[in-house]
Every structure is written in C-alpha cells, then in structure tokens.
C-alpha cells in the first residue's frame, strides 16, 4: 500500500493554530480526540507514526514526551539528541523521514502516518504526493495567534470518516466541529 500522510490540526476562524509556542486555547475534548485519532490502530502489534516540526516537539510538555504509544518523528535541520526518548527519531529533511517510512523492516512496524504540525510541516506534507487527508478541527471563535495553518487547496473534498464524531462539539462555551478533507487524487 502506498504511503499516505494524514494531517491533523485544530484551527480557529482566522486559521490560527498557535500563539507563543503554545496552543491558543484549552480544549480538553479536542486534545482527547487528537490522542485517540493519532494512537488508534487496527493491528494491536503496530503503532502510528506522528511526524512533527522541532518547534511542535518543543511545545510538548516534558511529562508527555515522547507522545505515548506512537512513534515520534521530529524534523530539524540542527543536531538533536533524542536518544533518551523511546520510539523517537530525528530527521534533517522530509526525504530522510520518507526513506525511513519506506524502509522494509520499519514499514512492518507502523500503521498510519499522522502529521501533527506545525505550519511548515503541514505545508511541506500537503504539497507532497503522499498527502492523503486533512483532519481539521474547526474552532468557531477567533483567538490571537502568531502561527497559521497554510492555505488549503479548494480541490480538497469533504468526506465522512466513521471514527470521527459528526455532531458539533462544545466546551466551556467554545463550539467546534471535526471535519475531514481528502485529496481528490486518492479514491474515497
Ligand atoms: N493547532 C494545532 O493543531 C497545532 C499543531 C501543531 C503545532 N501547533 C502550534 O504551532 C506552533 C509551532 O509550529 P511552527 O509552525 O512554529 O513550527 P514547526 O513546524 O513545529 O517547527 C518548525 C521547525 O521544524 C524544522 N523544520 C521545518 N521544516 C523543515 C524541513 N523541511 N526539514 C527539516 N526541518 C524542518 C525547523 O527546525 P530547526 O529550527 O530546529 O531546524 C523549524 O524551525 C506552536 O504554537 C504550536 O503550539 C498547533
């Protein structure tokens, strides 16, 4: 089966995704959704890969690093020492990460690839032929942000994924909706 990037992001009405190296909001149910989606596998012997930029890695609180029960891939052009972390790899480019993902031995260990941000990494993977789906949480509020989700190509098609709740969510008065968009190059 060909390699597919599933992007997962939460953005507010101005397409902001981050502020001061953190999330602009605190939405516990949205965080739980992120954890469930990126962790769940059909084969219990396999894990999913979560691919992220160095700044997103830096944003993860120490006690949650590496993201549990997932294989963490971190992109940075600089030297990183991640040896202390279990199931965690550093790559200097997307091509280096792709080489690992296509390695025969490694391929048998993972199920899905989740791209978890930030802005640069979303853009890089949406521009790639491997871009498959965007799982976007649309937060119906404007927050002050300094990092934004890249422009979304309007050829993307909205689809339903049975594992994604259909109904609008609400937490502490903030409304949000889970949406799924698919690259039309792939069959539904
Ligand atoms: N709302 C959401 O869903 C969501 C998701 C993720 C993150 N965020 C937020 O977004 C912000 C962080 O995102 P960001 O866009 O600023 O940074 P980022 O994409 O997480 O990380 C950028 C870094 O990744 C490395 N990098 C980027 N492109 C690369 C490439 N082609 N090859 C190798 N390395 C590459 C570089 O690291 P070096 O500088 O080390 O070389 C670069 O500085 C935070 O505020 C975070 O909370 C929000």
Account of the protein in words:
The chain is an alpha/beta fold and 188 residues long. It has a single domain, classed as Dihydrofolate Reductase, subunit A (3-Layer(aba) Sandwich). The protein contains five helices and eleven strands, in the order ββαβαββααβαβββββ. The strands form two sheets. Strands 1, 3, 4, 5, 6, 7, 9, 10 and 11 form a nine-stranded mixed sheet that branches. Strands 2-8 form a two-stranded antiparallel ribbon. β3, α2 and β4 form a beta-alpha-beta unit. The two termini are 15 Å apart. Bound molecules: NADP nicotinamide-adenine-dinucleotide phosphate. NADP nicotinamide-adenine-dinucleotide phosphate is lined by residues 9-10, 17-18, 21-23, 52-56, 59, 75-78, 92-94, 116-121, 124, 147. It comes from Agrilus planipennis.
